Model the fold of this input.
Amino acid sequence: IVMYILYLHITFRYNNPPGQEYAQVVKMLGNGRCECFCFDGVTRLGHIRGKMRKKVWITAGDIILAAKRDFPDEKVAIVHKYTAYEARNLKKYGDLTVNARINETAV
Done:
């Protein structure tokens, strides 16, 4: 079940649906791509969706929600970027692993 909480005009997205995974950006590669470390233990190539390009700026160390693709398992589409406050809430509620680093570029 996806639960939306509206607080100060910020939408939190908790309990990610199947086919989506929490991840942390390791390195920006350019051209809307980045290297993402998914919290299931696999490093994948992330692609920023066109809807988010030039509207949401993603840097190394950000916590994101990545949608897995069916066929090429090593690629994901970046669906949502969490702020530091939202990422701390995800960690507090147990959705992120304990060793997830928030607002740190070293993953």
User: Anything to note?
Assistant: Helices lie at 84-92. The chain is about 10% helix and 45% strand.
